[in-house]
Design goal:
16 helices, single chain, alpha/beta, globular, 2 domains, 22 strands, 21% strand, binds nicotinamide-adenine-dinucleotide, 6-stranded mixed sheet
Amino acid sequence: MQRYQLHIGGREVEPAGGRWLETQNPFTGETWAEIPRGDARDVDRAVQAAHQALTQGPWSEMTATQRGQLLHRLGDLVARDARKLAETEVRDNGKLLAEMLGQLNYIPQWYYYYGGLADKVQGAVLPLDKKGYFSFTRHEPLGVVAAITPWNSPLLLATWKIAPALAAGCTVVIKPSEFTSASTLEFARLFDEAGFPPGVFNVVTGLGDEVGSPLVDHPLVRKISFTGSDTTGRRINEQAARQLKHTAMELGGKSPNIVFEDADLEQAVFGAISGIFAATGQTCIAGSRLLVQDSVHDQVVGKLLDVARTARMGDPMDADTQVGPVTTQPQYRKVLEYLQVATQEGAKVLLGGRAADRPECGKGWFVEPTIFGDVKNSMRIAQEEVFGPVLSIIRFKDEAEAVQIANDVRFGLAAAVWTRDIGRALRMSEKLQAGTVWVNTYRAVSFMAPFGGYKDSGLGRENGIDAIREFLQVKSVWINSGAVSGNPFVLR
Ligand code: NAD
């Protein structure tokens, strides 16, 4: 069994309390590693190291171009170790090797993109309305950033924060999910190899209350960049507001995947499958509500059942597996509870609806791919985030009703529309309240495309050029060129 250490100030260190947490493999149910159970003392050490790196020493003296070069080197090292890191993530979160390897192979692009962007942040000379001044703006790093991440895609979601934060010149303390910390601890070693000064990147693992909360509260932390559930996000925001800290929140979703009668129905069905059964539905952008136009409802449902029935479950390390286990035991129980709630509310089980007991699932936490028909949008199964392989099918008559149902949830992370009508695609993309709208595709993301939520799905945006601004603050500099004087008691 492997025992990991915290990563603070460029060194691997033991947690102050000398305690560890076991981490389980969701496919076998067995403990495969121990991760440090940090506490407020470790948080303080890490934040002090990050603050020191920010304010003194080589990182604070570097040019943005030099920071960019380090980010490039880090990207190269992730590319080199992609398979090893992906395998660690599969052992920890049970998602398919194909999925995690795809993510790890893609992650370097974030470091190359933001590495390139680091020295392209420009202030402006201001065309002032007042004579006798020269005035300009500077964009400076916000300070120490606390990154808090969930278990579903540990390094991808961490990277969405780390790459722009470091490009902006900030330093980072990250607290990964207690269920999937191993890959972040392995990744931390690459910072030293890439040549980052100690303290620029630190990892403190442990529980939300014992590590996350003191990290949010630490007076030297200026920004909290969080990805996780909206319940935790709200709590962190309240805590951060007491100290007027900046926050960015990437929260949950209940995304509508909308199939119109004029769509390529084969493609739409694949999009529906990808929306809810890829990653075992454990993705914030899961297309968990399939809205189908009345006229093609039976046809779409028939095709969907044909494909979903053949989904192969089993060992996530096998190339043939399509649906893996649920990542954590609490999450597994939560998904099963939702299956009961849905049937009690009158939703009809069209497929699955129970825990999986197939031999190929072994002792893993597997739920059968589940499809509910006759779902009303007001039901809990249509309103609450399940975060599992559970699809609700809802019928609609026309465009207006599709928009009304799609927007009638408190979330607004993503939405998709399947149609061959360009006018309809444009109208729908305007009317849907979501941070991302896909037309005739699903689950596409890029380092170049802003990502984030409307409504209860979050605050702020990750990815794209503007994401670097989330880690910068603007300073206006005024230089009196000598001509300005006058009454000191009035505004100049
Ligand atoms: P979670 O909210 O339970 O935990 C997220 C992180 O917060 C973990 O590291 C956890 O330890 C930490 N945490 C818990 N309590 C805390 C506290 N009081 N103070 C500080 N930190 C605390 O979420 P999860 O179950 O790990 O992840 C699933 C959720 O994440 C889903 O709701 C999903 O939609 C969301 N998610 C969102 C996105 C997105 O980009 N919008 C991406 C992936 C997942």
